[in-house]
Design brief:
74% of the residues lie in helices and 0% in strands. By secondary structure, the chain is mainly α.
Length: 379
């Protein structure tokens, strides 16, 4: 495994994508006439999407900094980013373009030269201001591709204290001013300048992660209200883990205040705890091999959690003739994989946190199959 790799970053990045995927899936389902819970397409859910996007851009910048700081080579960097982004996008776009434009003659009035926007991955980003063959990728792909081009400049800026201060001042001003002056029809959050402050902050944060350094004094002074969180996180995973937990905790309130739904639901402590748990699980399952999951203890744990407990619940509740909604809720709560809190509790109280984290990951993967299958079998 590469020395710079931090599995916890990918775990949190995946968690950040979940509300985005859920929200867009439910929006499309509702548009097609399917019944979708209102909470999943409400303003509150949209706020969680914004939180997830902010985390994703931050962690993308941090991951790039961990990979390239001190070893940057422009040609290798650009080739690596292109290889990681374009092939899958081109494959999806080519299939849709062949079906729509070539076979069925769609968008015949659009000049064919504009396909270059799609080949560059910028069609979704430019759609508000010009006509393109936009199919997939939305605004996000164009923004992240342009941020990849800006990354070498950000990496240069964090090399000296003076340049870091200048960058911080520029990003602070940009974060405040750009939402006010962003020209229509673009939305500030769907532009490069709207996401640049979070991405730049992630690059700066990645430089601390690489050194496994404690926060600078001025940042520590701003986090004096969080000494307990720092101490617990440091005991669990060391300074790098503690710095990550503090960073996510410091980031959350700004987004939470924007969400009246989240504020009323008092979700901030839960989000912070979830972030710490996911980071811990990521550090404990790093380097895992599939052969290690052949241990019968993992199979027994997953079987008890995903199959035996739902069956016991079914037998106990069957004579009660409960309302289907109540029964479904109780079943889903019981059929979920091992709880993430078990890994943190094992770490705090001297248990086998490595086994707990891997059992969580293993049961989560299996639940993708067991939950729908058991739902069908139990009616």
């Amino acid at each position: 495994m590469p020395r710079h790799y931090r599995p916890g970053l990918d775990v949190v990045r995946l968690a950040a994508l979940l509300p985005v995927l859920c929200y867009h899936y439910c929006i499309e389902a509702a548009r097609l006439g399917f019944a979708v819970p209102t909470a999943l397409i409400s303003r509150g859910m949209a706020d969680w999407v914004e939180l997830g996007l902010a985390w994703f851009f931050l962690l993308s910048g941090a991951a790039l900094c961990l990979q390239w700081q001190g070893r940057f080579a422009l040609r290798r960097y650009l080739a690596g980013r292109a290889a990681a982004t374009y092939p899958a996008f081109w494959l999806g776009f080519a299939a849709l373009f062949l079906y729509g434009e070539v076979l069925h003659g769609n968008n015949a009035d659009i000049p064919r030269w504009r396909v270059i926007f799609s080949l560059l991955g910028l069609d979704g980003y430019l759609t508000p201001v010009t006509v393109t063959f936009y199919k997939i990728g939305e605004w996000f792909l164009g923004v992240i591709l342009i941020l990849y081009l800006v990354f070498p400049l950000l990496l240069w800026c964090i090399e000296t204290p003076l340049r870091r201060r200048a960058l911080a001042a520029c990003m602070a001003v940009l974060a405040i001013v750009w939402p006010l002056i962003c020209p229509a029809p673009w939305e500030a959050g769907h532009t490069v300048l709207g996401r640049l402050p979070a991405f730049a902050l992630g690059v700066w944060f990645g430089s601390f992660l690489q050194k496994d350094a404690a926060p600078p004094k001025w940042l520590t002074a701003g986090l004096l209200t969080l000494p307990l969180m720092w101490d617990v996180a440091r005991r669990i995973g060391g300074k790098g883990f503690a710095l990550t937990a503090l960073f996510l905790l410091a980031l959350n309130p700004w987004h939470m205040v924007l969400s009246r739904w989240a504020l009323e639901a008092n979700m901030l402590p839960h989000v912070v705890l979830l972030a710490a748990e996911l980071l811990l699980i990521g550090t404990r399952i790093s380097g895992i091999r599939l052969s290690e999951l052949r241990d019968k203890d993992y199979h027994i744990t997953a079987a008890l959690r995903l199959i035996v407990l739902p069956l016991i619940l079914y037998v106990l509740l069957l004579p009660l003739h409960l309302d289907p909604a109540v029964w479904s809720t109780l079943y889903l709560l019981t059929a979920m994989p091992c709880g993430t809190l078990s890994a943190m509790q094992a770490e705090l109280y001297g248990g086998d946190s490595r086994f707990a984290a891997r059992a969580i990951a293993y049961s989560t993967l299996l639940s993708l199959a067991t939950v729908p299958v058991m739902s069908l079998l139990l009616g």
